[in-house]
Amino acid sequence: MFGVSGGGMHGSMSPPDFEMGGQMMMNGMDTQAYEMADKDAKREKLNAVVIETMNFLGMAQNTDRFVRLLEKADVICIPDVEKLNQEKCEKLSLPFELVQALQKRVKVWKMDLVDEAEQELERGEEHYIKKLMEMPQGDHQMQMQMQMPMPNMMPYGPQESGH
After folding, report:
1. What pLDDT band is residue 47 in, cutting at 50, 70 and 90?
2. What is the mean pLDDT of residues 95-118?
3. pTM for the structure as a whole
4. Closest alpha carbon to 122 in 51, 37, 50
5. Quick one: 74 exposed, middle or buried, by C-beta within 10 A (0-12, 13-18, 19+)?
6. Cβ-contact 47, 62 below 8 angstroms
């Protein structure tokens, strides 16, 4: 799990971007930190589906082993799992039967548990984050207009989940 604090952002809904040590800062957080947080969020979603799949198969005791294999094969998010086939699994030394079960569970999970509107919001945020990172660092006006909050974060602090 990872934690991100909303501290230091009270009183302003969109603090200015600034540069620090040659790295662009966004909402007080450098883009590397944002990318790491985004990667962690994607990894957590995958881990949740892996746990659910392994429990469903009655193989919960092997969940950690499967997660480690996926990580070593650089399979860190749901789209990575969806791209796997038998040939890729053999090349990466991944158990194809478990990968197939995971892929089937991902399809069900996407239909049952994931709100399409949330996925669209995430795609939109990713699009503008990429644009922001591609901008010349001196274009502060445009950078301020394109500021995006951290995933699962409101500009003024963390959101409460489950409400």
Report:
1. very high
2. 85
3. 0.52
4. 37
5. exposed
6. no
pLDDT at 7: 40
Task: Look at the alpha carbons of 30, 32, 35, 36 in this order and tell me if their dihedral is positive or negative.
Answer: negative
Report how far residue 125's alpha carbon sits from residue 132's, in angstroms, rounded to the nearest whole number: 10
On whether the CB atoms of residues 26 and 146 are closer than 8 A, the answer is: no
Burial class (CB in 10 A: 0-12, 13-18, 19+), 57: middle
Give the integer Cα–Cα distance in Å for 148 and 163. Answer: 22
Alpha-carbon span 137 to 145, nearest angstrom: 14
- Report residue 142 as tokens: 């445009």
Distance CA 119, CA 72 (A): 27
For residue 139, name the pLDDT band (cuts at 50, 70, 90): low
